[in-house]
Amino acid sequence: MEERLEREAKLKRLERKRDRKELEHRVEELAPKKTGREAMLEKKRFRSSYARMEKDPTVVEVETYDRGKDFEEARTHFARQ
After folding, report:
1. DSSP code of 31?
2. Could you tell me where the DSSP H helices lie in the chain?
3. Mean pLDDT over residues 36-63, rounded?
4. In the chain, where are the structural domains located?
């Protein structure tokens, strides 16, 4: 009985891992990651716009990554728009 539960738990973990990788692959197809200098500049714009938003919450910019999202979530959010 215990071995069966362990086996099922292991299968669930593997399935979740496979699903995460598949989702990551789909996101990459829809919105490819920027690389090199382009990525560095995008992150820099994100940090500066976030800092301005913290100083003055009324500041609304087109490239502001809001709602407390991290960089990857923001990238997928803007890719959908």
Report:
1. S
2. 2-30, 36-55, 71-80
3. 72
4. 1-30, 34-81
